[in-house]
Design goal:
The complex is a heterodimer of chains A (about 350) and B (about 220).
Chain A lengths: L1 H31 L8 H11 L2 H8 L3 H5 L2 H5 L1 H4 L19 H4 L1 H9 L8 H4 L13 H9 L4 H9 L5 H5 L4 H5 L5 E9 L14 H8 L18 H9 L6 E9 L16 H4 L2 H4 L3 E6 L5 E6 L23 H27 L6
Parallel strand pairs in A: 1-3
Antiparallel strand pairs in A: 1-2, 3-4
Helix pairs in contact in A: 1-2
Chain B lengths: L1 E6 L3 H25 L10 H29 L3 H5 L3 H16 L20 H26 L5 H6 L3 H25 L10 H6 L1 E6 L5 E3 L2
Antiparallel strand pairs in B: 1-2, 2-3
Helix pairs in contact in B: 1-2, 2-5, 5-7
Classes of the chains: A alpha+beta (about 350), B mainly alpha (about 220).
């Protein structure tokens, strides 16, 4: 009898837990519009009810529910940071905040404070806490736009031109933090960009989510390239994308992005040396990702078959990193051509030596 | 049978030739470092290799202009010297091939007699036609575009993009390196190893006088 009761209680408990979990999940989605995280969801919904409406709170206090919803900050809940809110809110007074970024991100704030950038801008200067993302969720162009908020493009191009050949070309193909943060490694991240001849190379124009949807007729954007829907981009799929005439107005824009950017902003000595990238060798250049825009403003990376940057002409026709992305097949063809040129001196020279007496 | 000196290579041609030679050798070495930086580091930093490559490229493009201006506008002998005639293609090429690959080994003299207006044998004419009217212009053009990707962006796109341009530049450069080996070797085929090289430095070539009003290269 005891065992029957125990079994019944266990099953009953599991059913209750599952029921509550499903209630929270569906309730959150129904009320929050994609707003579905954690225990604080009900509190967030109450905040978003007003702050998610720009007409009601104005642009300064507006929080885009779609962009906020996916963040880790949303999971913790609004009142984790805005902990001094009172029952009188909204009473027209600013809400004092007793928490700061360093309370959770202590390592980063310590690292950042020690960098030359530490006294120039606060965390909010670059990061909007209501739409934070991981490094892989942001396009390199977006990262660069954050920098351009303070560092004017014209001045940046001019200062880099003093030592960097074709500075504009470089700045359009590299995330600033690839050189200005202490990232050890980098990968090639590929985006879908507009083929706009009026835009300079330093400012590639990525195709936004809504516009790309037209190319897929509303289907998952990934399927624009990942034709067999296996969540993996093969070189063959890249080639098909490049050959497809319906994609004539868009192209694959590859950029050099750091794997783990740090907040120790400065210019590292080895970045002045071109060989940091240009002699990193074909092996480093094998790894790349295709980054697709998401509805919530972030980007999602999909792994690409190794060697996309090495497949000159077909996989990423507009990306070339001298030295590092040299194509092995072309090297062999070049060597054959040069060897062909040596046939005459070697072959003829040999017979010339043997027949030298005939010309005395 | 006496020998006399003929002024075969005027100063502008010699200046062009040696500027071109220096430029092309520099381009080959710096180009090799740019493509294989892990293995080749003769010229110091990668940036130095690029700067040198760009400078040598400009020198070669300018010396190419000297060549064109001299032959086309000053002496007006460009087509006469570089474009093979009908007889060159029908019998001349064959005769010259037989000489280089057969008769030469038996001590038979070169059937071609160089004069200031007819410097090249049919085989040379055909080779230089490809070198000077196809390889050199295209390797220079692709190099100029690669050197100015930003300002010449629309032309780069028209040409098929960065990778196409780089591939063309690399394969054209390899073809020129291949020619360089053959060119230097053939320059040693005179009576002595320096017999053909000296005139390109001094301008004067020693030729045999057969007393028939014709001059003949001394082989």
């Amino acid at each position: 009898m005891k065992s029957v009761n125990r079994s019944f209680l266990t099953q009953y408990s599991i059913a209750i837990v599952l029921f509550l979990v499903s209630c929270i999940a569906t309730g959150g989605q129904a009320q929050g519009g994609g707003y579905s995280f954690g225990d604080s969801v009900s509190k967030n919904v109450a905040c978003i009810a007003c702050h998610g409406n720009q007409d009601q709170v104005g642009s300064k206090n507006f929080i885009d529910p779609t962009k906020f919803g996916h963040t880790t900050h949303a999971r913790f809940g609004c009142t984790t940071c805005h902990d001094a809110i009172t029952s009188k809110h909204p009473d027209g007074n600013a809400i004092p905040r007793t928490t700061g970024c360093g309370d959770c991100h202590n390592d980063i704030t310590t690292q950042y404070s020690a960098s030359i950038h530490g006294t120039k801008a606060s965390c909010n200067g670059c990061h909007n806490p209501h739409r934070v993302s991981t490094a892989s969720e942001i396009a390199a162009t977006e990262m660069n736009k954050q920098c351009a908020g303070c560092h004017e493009n014209v001045k940046i191009t001019s200062s880099h031109s003093k030592w960097l050949p074709q500075a504009g070309l470089h700045l359009g193909a590299i995330a600033c933090v690839s050189c200005h943060s202490k990232a050890e490694n980098y990968v090639i991240t590929i985006y879908i960009a507009k083929r706009d001849e009026a835009e300079p190379d330093s400012k590639p124009n990525l195709v936004p989510y809504e516009e790309l949807l037209k190319h897929t007729n509303g289907e998952n954007l990934q399927y624009l390239i990942d034709r067999n829907h296996d969540n993996y981009i093969s070189l063959d799929e890249l080639r098909k994308f490049n050959r497809d005439p319906s994609n004539k107005n868009i192209y694959l824009k590859a950029m050099l992005t750091p794997v783990k950017p740090t907040h120790s902003f400065q210019t590292f000595d080895n970045r002045w040396d071109c060989t940091f990238c240009h002699a990193s060798g074909p092996e480093v250049m094998q790894t790349s990702y295709l980054s697709f825009p998401e509805q919530n403003g972030t980007f999602r990376q999909v792994a690409v078959e190794r060697g996309a940057t090495m497949d000159a002409l077909r996989s990423i026709p507009n990306f070339y990193l001298m030295g590092s992305t040299r194509n092995g097949v072309l090297n062999k063809i070049g060597l054959l051509i040069i060897a062909g040129g040596m046939v005459m001196p070697v072959g003829h020279g040999f017979l010339r030596f043997l027949s030298r007496k005939n010309r005395l | 049978m006496s020998a006399k000196m003929v002024y075969l290579q005027p100063a502008p041609v010699r200046i062009w030739h040696w500027l071109n030679a220096l430029g092309i050798v520099t381009l080959c070495v710096s180009g090799a470092q740019i493509r294989f930086p892990e293995y080749i580091t003769f010229l110091g930093s990668y940036r130095s290799a690029i700067m040198l490559h760009n400078t040598a490229g400009i020198v070669v493009a300018l010396s190419f202009s000297i060549w064109f201006i001299y032959y086309k506008l000053v002496s007006n002998t460009l087509s006469e010297i570089y474009i093979p005639k009908g007889s060159d293609l029908t019998t001349g090429l064959f005769r010259q091939i037989v000489f280089y690959f057969f008769a030469y080994f038996f001590g038979v003299p070169n059937p071609h007699h160089a004069t200031p207006d007819n410097k090249f044998n049919p085989l040379q004419k055909s080779a230089y036609l490809v070198i000077m009217f196809v390889l050199m212009p295209f390797v220079s053009l692709t190099g100029i575009l690669l050197m100015n990707m930003g300002p010449m962006r629309e032309l780069v796109i028209m040409a098929g993009g960065l990778n196409i341009l780089d591939t063309m530049h690399f394969l054209l450069a390899c073809s020129l390196v291949a020619f360089l080996f053959t060119h230097v070797y053939l320059a040693t085929l005179g009576k002595t190893a320096l017999a053909y090289i000296k005139p390109m430095w001094t301008g004067w070539e020693k030729v045999e006088n057969h007393g028939t009003g014709q001059t003949r290269l001394q082989h």
